[in-house]
Specification:
Blueprint (H helix, E strand, L loop, with lengths): L1 H7 L23 E7 L7 H16 L2 E7 H8 L10 H11 L3 E7 L7 H8 L10 E8 L7 H12 L3 E2 L4 E4 L3 E2 L2 E2 L2 H27 L1
Parallel strand pairs: 1-2, 1-3, 3-4, 4-5, 4-6
Antiparallel strand pairs: 7-8
Helix pairs in contact: 2-7
Pfam families: FMN_red (PF03358)
Family: Belongs to the SsuE family.
Keywords: Flavoprotein, FMN, Oxidoreductase
Amino acid sequence: MIEMARSLLTHDVTGASAPDSTMGMQPMSNAINVVAISGGLQRPSRTLALTDAIVAALGAALPIETRLIELGEIGGRLAGALTRTQVPADLDAQIRAIETADALVVASPVYRASYTGLFKHLFDLVHHEALIDVPVLLAATGGSERHALVIDHQLRPLFSFFQARTLPIGVYASESDFDQYQITNPALRARIALAVDRAVPQLRPHALSVAAA
């Protein structure tokens, strides 16, 4: 039943007009399709830097193909779509990419003790059965450590609604972990490494199944 629901949501997005960012990686036939969503509304941003670092660590551990969705680039037009049918075609391709990913990396800045409204609006437009059993690595950035619980109190419940498989360790980064939007704190890099290390056993079966297909 679950596989049927996901197969109905599978679409070819390679011909879409939206740019497909692979973060410098070449396509690999046995790679895991990872879609990374950076919820930062500006560029450069600490949220984007954190997203890039997590994806790079995943790519060092497993064969992956990545697509980056930056909310700051699509948020203005996305905000005007009240329903999925109102979403412009190129943005709909981004949502379809989320719905058909093998795994997600999602990161949001903390705004008033939660993820941003546009971040929530994006996932309001994702089909409620599209992410069943999809592994999701959660991340967030905030001004200080006092917001660190946003991952478990806000992000994890959101993806539990989708019946996604949130990975065991999320990554929270505060402003002091960066200098000029670059990660400078070794402790943050260690947290990223630990999160990826715990994620790999759950993502490796996806890589094996893709290679066998």
